[in-house]
């Protein structure tokens, strides 16, 4: 299968994660929403991926651009995909305390799970932004790549927060962790 030509909305089967749909495309990876495992970032050259060709569906009935439009409409309507991301066990019921250097000023306490939820929402919104960049009809490929590289650097800035995540697969990955084609 020529995986470089797959687009948003393509249905896939992964040997480990099961059935899924491409919801985002990066330079070297796909963001795939798996039915039983949520959104995962999978390398475009992963040999465990197979495209699912639905029976009785022709290009006249359903095209990738129709699927892209439908997905973008759903994303705008619901504010993006929100997978369930577990907080690391040692942080559950924890408290984040922000104490100013000036002891006369009051500090701020915030439950870690509330802070973690905001970090996950930030990540999900960055993913939606990536999807919108990839699907943009006016941006050139060079502009898309430049914006993707900038988003990758944003992910790199957020790697400090990986300590909060239970599962390593859900960590932020910057330029050093990105795979190249």
From TrEMBL:
The organism's place on the tree of life at top rank: Bacteria
Entry protein name: Uncharacterized protein
